[in-house]
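User: Hey, quick favor. My workstation is busy. Could you predict this chain's structure for me?
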Amino acid sequence: MRRDMDLVRQLLLKLESIKKGPHEVFLLSGNSEVVAVEGRTSDEIYFHLTKIEEAGFLERVGGGAMTAVSFRALSWKGQEFLDNIREDSIWQKTKEKAGSASFDVLSAIAKAILKDRIRSLTGLDLD
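Assistant: No problem, here it is.
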């Protein structure tokens, strides 16, 4: 299965919005309602959850299950990545410039677009 960065973004936004206590842990499978995405199969969802976990975007909690991903919170790295691509217009520009790229490349491009936007709005150079 191919990685779909639009689905990764959708899942990160869903994960971030889960209402729970700070120590509460969820086991998320591909058919968990809290991460359901219309038009996507449970296999697609589970595959992308495992990729999000492999990328270090989730806090590590225990060993995990073979059929579910343990979720307590996004890691610092996951929050940073999501902050860079959260805004729809930034995400669209990032995809236009990067096409199909790695998490690191997408994040770097999104950061550059954000810096450019801040520079144009404030005159501050963040380099």
